[in-house]
Amino acid sequence: MTSCVLSKLVLSSTRRPLSAMALEPTHSAHFSFQAPYSLDSPAQRFSPIEHLALDGPSNTHKLSSFGMDAQALGVPDFGATEPFKLFPSETIEIINSELEKHAHETTFRSPPFAPCVMRGLAHKSEFIRDLWNAPQLQALLSSIVGIPIEPHPMAFERAHINVQEQKYSDSELVEVMKQNDDATGEEQPVFGWHTDSQPLVCITMLSDVPEDAVGGETHIQKADGEVLKLQFPAAGYSYLLQGSVIPHAAMPALNYNRVTMITSFVPTNPLFCEKTDLDLAIKYSPADALTDEFVKYRCDYMSKRLKLLKRCSTSDGVEFCENLLDEIMADLKHTKDSLSRVKDTLTK
Ligand SMILES: [Fe+2]
């Protein structure tokens, strides 16, 4: 069994208005820790050979198989993978220990879609930072998507943790199942239908999945409305999703605690549009650090696009330059508008 300390957290169900939402980390008084080893243990060093499983998924869905036109959308023809084993159980134990070690300074309460999230682990944990920066991991995920991709340059968008508390006790679930043969069909998503502002996400299961698990799937919607359900079979499994294009929703885990780690990826080639914003993230991140990271990232992204313009201007003709300049001007506006909405959110 994989140890998951976070599944033992005492989760507060208190909801607060947005303006009072936890923009400061919570404190250890909310937690009940059962450390598998001393918190003073020397840090575990990440090893790609030991800590990654690089076989990849057995099944990948293209956007075109979902009835979407990748070319018209200007994105790679990749939709989603089925869940596949990405991390051995030892890696999951180390990650969970890292979460425990840094919970005090990275935990936020009551965002709209989960009672508890953790942010900034890529800043705090060398192991988690090295894991997501591993060239072997990037090569695998790039080969799945079909273009070179890299971890999101904003460290806050790597190793985001969602902690979802089981919705019903065992006895409550029996009652719910009695009332409805298909209780999951009646449940409302914990995070309703949406698309992401980050291009691609890799979602990893960190907690144990019981054999009789009910709920906790991600629903993804094809162009004709058909819904595909992705369910993690066990801790250490991940799936990759082009969440900026495919509408998706997270269903509640009815009879188990569900802890997931989400890392965003962006195309390496700056020709691809990228529209990261802070609309959600500002509700559960330290505002100054997040906006600082966002501005720096957007400047780097737009600089790469300007360099591309400079490099290509003579060879690709005026029309290419015009189109790219239009996109860069839209990038500037998107960056400013995102910051304006942050200001509005913080002053509400
Ligand atoms: Fe999403």
Plain-language structure description:
It is a single chain. This protein has helices spanning 48-51, 70-73, 89-106, 121-124, 126-133, 135-145, 170-179, 183-186, 287-347, and strands at 60-61, 80-81, 84-85, 107-109, 116-118, 149-151, 160-164, 191-194, 200-205, 218-221, 227-230, 237-241, 248-250, 258-267. With 348 residues, the chain is an alpha+beta fold. The strands form three sheets. Strands 3, 4, 5, 6, 7, 9, 12 and 14 form an eight-stranded antiparallel sheet that branches. A four-stranded antiparallel sheet has the order 8-13-10-11, with no helix packed on it. A two-stranded antiparallel ribbon has the order 1-2. It is globular. The N and C termini lie far apart (45 Å). The model is unreliable at 1-39 (pLDDT under 50). Fe (ii) ion binds next to loops. It comes from Triparma laevis f. longispina. This is Fe2OG dioxygenase domain-containing protein.
Query: What's the average pLDDT?
Result: 84
Top CATH class: Mainly Beta
* Helix vs. strand class: alpha+beta
Largest sheet: 8 strands, antiparallel
Termini, distance in Å?
45 Å
CATH-level-2 architecture: Sandwich
